[in-house]
Amino acid sequence: MTQRLIADETLTAALARMLAAELRPGQAVLLDGPVGAGKTHFARAFIRARQGEAAEDVPSPTFTLVQTYGDPMGTEIWHADLYRLTDPSELHELGLDEALETGICLIEWPDRLETMPANALTIALTPLPDPDLRQIALPKALARTAGRAAFVHQAHWGEARVTPLAGDASARRYFRLEGAGSAVLMDDPGGSMPAFLKMTHWLRGHGFGAPQIIAADEPQGLALVEDLGDALLARVLDEDPALAPVAYDRIADLLADLHRHPVPELPALDGPALADQVGLFAEWYLPAMGASGGEEVAPAIAALHARLAADVPPVTALRDFHAENLIWRGPAPLGLIDYQDAVAAHPAYDLVSALQDARRDVPRKIEARAIARYLAATGLDEGRFRAAYALLGAQRSLRILGIFARLCLRDGKPRYLDFMPRVWAHVQANLAHPALAPLAEALAGAPAPTSELIEGLRARCPCR
User: Fold this and answer.
1) Is residue 258 a contact partner of residue 208, using CB atoms and an 8 Å limit?
2) How does 29-56 read in b/e, with b if 16+ C-beta sit within 10 Å?
3) Cβ(394)–Cβ(439) under 8 Å?
4) Mind listing the domains of the chain with CATH numbers?
5) Which residues pair with 139 in a beta bridge?
6) Residues in domain Aminoglycoside phosphotransferase (predicted)?
7) Is the pLDDT of residue 66 over 70?
8) What is the distance in angstroms between the CA of the first residue and the CA of the last residue of the chain?
9) What is the pTM for the complete model shown?
10) Which of 150, 285, 350, 420 has the fewest other C-beta atoms within 10 Å?
């Protein structure tokens, strides 16, 4: 299936810049089309986007056949124009064969090639009667790339440079757009954009640090939002560990404030939902560690939630609430991202998510201080809160262990395996609470993620 769009020069360049943010060494783009179709315009925008501030002039290689460029990441970019090629063997002499394996190649007039590169992406440009427009045909694999380009073009950000930002364990992707200002492009093919937009408006309406929405295409799962910067709290704390007491005080205060507001319409993360989620532990973690069983874990979670947590009214929980989803902005409110999965849950849920972080160690003294601060601000019963905190911490960590195993075995993402020992330690710390004795019994015999077991799991990962 082919994706087609009608593009002017700006949209053509926007598509090239969007593609430049995605391609990696070893990939080639075949630019097909007659003279004047815009092939060199596309290649020029692509190369200058890869080079960023170090962008060079990009002349047409019509007479030289090949021009090479470098980008700040150390990638070599080959721009070939084969219109005047007389003998395909010339390309071997120029080194194009090797470049196809190690660099990024943009090839105009690819029909002159003796053999088409494996897995190359063909982009066909066709002039239209209107001299300002052309039709661009792309492979299905670039459908979302084209959609992103058309979206930013329509939002008047088509001339911005596009650079990829680190994503998460989901299929969502993030890009920074830089032009007259900067913004973040969110691409969410999974259908959670409506929830993100709704929650953004709610949070901003109550004074919390969610990003402003600049433009959105809800059906396509695309949004352009305010750029809150790169100062992820996790990164800031790595650079300045002494900031941790203040930072986690701010987290406790933010949650206490959030929980004072009536809960918007959100899915309930109650006992049955928590029990259902923890099924990932038995489904993925235990088999990954060479074990079986785990059938008693989910019922124990549900029963303990009914006994320890169901009497407290639910509050708004952002759910993936931890230091990598918080932006440090000095005295300004903490920036919030990745809250599209917000739920109505027990007040301890987000606090344990932040304090028992799967990706980084939070000192026990900091954890105790933040819990005490939150309790002082909310007036909740300390004994019952701490029991519910332990339960939710155990449930969350067990679920995460299942997710990490699944990310490796199903999705080819092994990097999360390194976090397993820390998450297991959270499980053990929470099971030490006397109220969780039934859960501890249900987990008796479950194997710890030793280095040997983790490496065995890593070896079975279909890494992509």
Assistant:
1) yes
2) bbbbbeeebbbbbbbbbbbbbbbeeeee
3) yes
4) 2-142 (3.40.50.300), 173-226 (3.30.200.20), 233-459 (3.90.1200.10)
5) 2
6) 162-384
7) yes
8) 24
9) 0.89
10) 150
Calpha distance 435→420 (Å, rounded): 24
Select from 450, 431, 430, 426 the least CA-distant residue to 442: 431
Given pLDDT bands bounded at 50, 70 and 90, which one contains residue 388? very high
Q: How many CB atoms lie within 10 A of CB 266?
A: 20
Question: Cβ contacts of residue 53 below 8 Å, gap of 6+?
Answer: none
Q: What is the pLDDT of residue 95?
A: 79
CA atoms within 13 A on the CB side of 374: 29
Is 113 or 397 the better-scoring residue by pLDDT? 397
Mean pLDDT of 136-161: 94
Query: What percent helix, strand, coil does the chain show, rounded to 5?
Result: 45, 15, 35
Q: What is the dihedral of CA 434, 436, 441, 443, to 10 degrees?
A: -130
Residue range 193-238, pLDDT digits in tens: 999 999 999 999 999 999 999 999 999 999 999 999 999 999 999 9
Cβ-based burial of 413 (10 A; exposed 0-12, middle 13-18, buried ≥19): middle
Residue 25 exposed, middle or buried by CB count within 10 Å (0-12, 13-18, 19+): middle
Q: Classify burial at 233, counting beta carbons within 10 Å of its beta carbon; exposed 0-12, middle 13-18, buried 19 or more.
A: buried
Neighbours of 305 (CB within 10 A): 22
> What is the C-alpha separation between 333 and 229, in angstroms, rounded?
13
Q: Which of 40, 35, 32, 34 is nearest to 13 (CA)?
A: 40
Residues 241-247: what's their mean pLDDT? 96
- Cβ atoms within 10 Å of 139's Cβ, excluding its own: 16
